[in-house]
Design goal:
Layout lengths: L6 H14 L2 E5 L7 H4 L10 E6 L5 E5 L5 E5 L2 E5 L4 E10 L4 E15 L4 E4 L2 E5 L7
Antiparallel strand pairs: 1-2, 1-6, 3-4, 4-9, 5-8, 6-7
C-alpha cells in the first residue's frame, strides 16, 4: 500500500511560514510558545531574546526535504547585533503582525557569554515536513 501527501499540501504550510515570518530571534531558551518571552530582551522579566534580525519572504526557499517531504529554509543571517547579554541556545521565527511564534529550533552549537558588544552569525536552517508513514 502506498502512502503519500501531496507537495501542494506541504507547500501550503511552508509558504505560510515563508510569507508570515518577519523576524528571526536568537534566544537563551525555548520560548515554549510564548511570543512575549521570545520578543523581549533576555533578563527583562521572562524575556529570553539575545538578538534579532528582520527577514522577508525573499530570505526563505521552499524545496524538497533532505530525506523526503518538503522543507523551507531561511538563509544565513550574518553579523547580527547582540541586543541583550546571555547564552544563545535556540532560534525562533516570529510573525510580528500576529504576535505568534511560528517555529523554534535549537542551535547546533550554543554561543555562551554573549554581550551587547558582540555580533553573531545565524546559520541557514530549515523547518521540514516529512512524507506520510504507516499509521499504527
Amino acid at each position: 500500500m502506498a502512502y503519500n501527501i501531496s507537495d501542494t499540501v506541504f507547500d501550503t504550510a511552508l509558504n505560510y511560514l515563508k510569507n508570515n515570518c518577519t523576524k528571526v530571534v536568537v534566544l537563551s531558551a525555548d520560548p515554549a510558545g510564548s511570543y512575549a518571552n521570545a520578543n523581549t530582551d533576555n533578563g527583562t522579566g521572562s524575556g529570553i531574546k539575545i538578538a534579532e534580525v528582520t527577514v522577508t519572504s525573499t530570505d526563505f526557499t521552499v524545496a524538497d526535504g533532505a530525506t523526503d517531504g518538503r522543507k523551507v529554509t531561511v538563509s544565513a543571517q550574518n553579523d547580527v547585533p547582540v541586543g541583550a547579554n546571555g547564552d544563545a541556545t535556540h532560534v525562533a521565527w516570529l510573525d510580528v503582525s500576529n504576535t505568534a511564534v511560528l517555529f523554534v529550533t535549537q542551535l547546533t552549537t550554543n554561543r555562551t557569554g554573549l554581550t551587547t558588544s558582540d555580533t553573531l552569525d545565524v546559520p541557514a536552517h530549515f523547518a521540514a515536513l516529512r512524507d506520510a508513514v504507516v499509521a499504527s
